[in-house]
Amino acid sequence: xxxxxxxxxxxxxxxxxxxxxxxxxxxxxxxxxxxxxxxxxxxxxxxxxxxxxxxxxxxxxxxxxxxxxxxxxxxxxxxxxxxxxxxxxxxxxxxxxxxxxxxxxxxxxxxxxxxxxxxxxxxxxxxxxxxxxxxxxxxxxxxxxxxxxxxxxxxxxxxxxxxxxxxxxxxxxxxxxxxxxxxxxxxxxxxxxxxxxxxxxxxxxxxxxxxxxxxxxxxxxxxxxxxxxxxxxxxxxxxxxxxxxxxxxxxxxxxxxxxxxxxxxxxxxxxxxxxxxxxxxxxxxxxxxxxxxxxxxxxxxxxxxxxxxxxxxxxxxxxxxxxxxxxxxxxxxxxxxxxxxxxxxxxxxxxxxxxxxxxxxxxxxxxxxxxxxxxxxxxxxxxxxxxxx
Length: 389
Ligand code: GLY
Prior knowledge:
The protein has helices at residues 13-30, 58-72, 75-93, 103-118, 121-135, 168-177, 181-197, 233-250, 254-268, 292-305, 311-332, 368-382; strands spanning 38-39, 50-51, 138-139, 144-145, 158-160, 207-210, 217-221, 347-350, 361-365. The protein is mainly alpha-helical. It folds into three domains: 1-14 and 255-383, Glycosyltransferase; 31-136, no CATH class; 138-221, no CATH class. The strands form four sheets. It has a three-stranded antiparallel β-sheet, covered by helices on one side. Strand 3 (138-139) and strand 4 form a beta hairpin. Helix 1 packs across helix 2 (58-72) and helix 2 (58-72) packs parallel to helix 4. The relative contact order is 0.14. Bound molecules: glycine (GLY). Residues 162, 224, 234, 349 line the site of glycine. GO terms for molecular function: chondroitin hydrolase activity. This is Glycoside hydrolase family 88 protein. InterPro entries: 6-hairpin_glycosidase_sf, 6hp_glycosidase-like_sf, Glyco_hydro_88, UG_Glycosaminoglycan_Hydrolase. Keywords: Hydrolase. Pfam families: Glyco_hydro_88.
């Protein structure tokens, strides 16, 4: 428990309320434009454009609407989220852009949330169908859920660390249906992922390949990170939150220790203002963009893990989360609706480097998950919250 950023201020309850109040007002302000359509994955010059329900990111916007509804109880929000749940049901029924593993990112903050909050029957139906879709991507040879692409090619035979956030959908589906098949697959995937994506120094691989014939672990590789051996900031943050959720759902004590180590790696690679650059290779003085979404994702992971720890250690992680979120609120959050229709600036979706194959888009902008996890972290700090994951 060495790192605590002593002397850094924590976000106060009144700042949390002010922040959530702004989020609520901003979401209501843009709601007419983003009810039948969704926010693009990232903003351009601070402004999101509307898109149809096609991308892997559309669930975050509905999740923001639900979080705002929980905050204010405004019926306009509930109505809009219900329209979007209908769109998610149609999407899974028609199998529109669902041949990938991001069913949890899509259906947990939208449809599972709607079911938990309002008993939405459409939400329940859509989310169970999404869980059915997700388990079609499971490979018994290698015991993992394949992230992207057609299932029969060696160049696709890999998992990615982000998938840890897709698995709560499977646990929820088992609980709802009484059928353990979803949970069994989630458990196998977690085990395979944890055994392979975490390196000896507790930095993480973004993606990991397996041998198609034997299922044996083959090699790690980055996709969105700076280079293969570096730690992509958001991958590490997915690891922090992912380990907390892995412990929540499996109860395996060794995951607590892995959570501590993966989190320590993240924290020891933060710059002075506690908001990482897009890859943890970079720090103060480097001419590189930030990824503010990673700060909020990691804070959510620490707040989640704190629920299962002894009081002293729980307080330690809650304090760090409150320090990180103070910086996000002070230095990155949108405060003026004229400058952006999003919630948090300075995130990076996909940045090109000499060693990755990424295109440069959504760099130093708002993005949909950055906005969503900012609200989730604030909500978690404001009260006991029944999570969507
Ligand atoms: N899951 C994709 C990303 O974090 O950009």
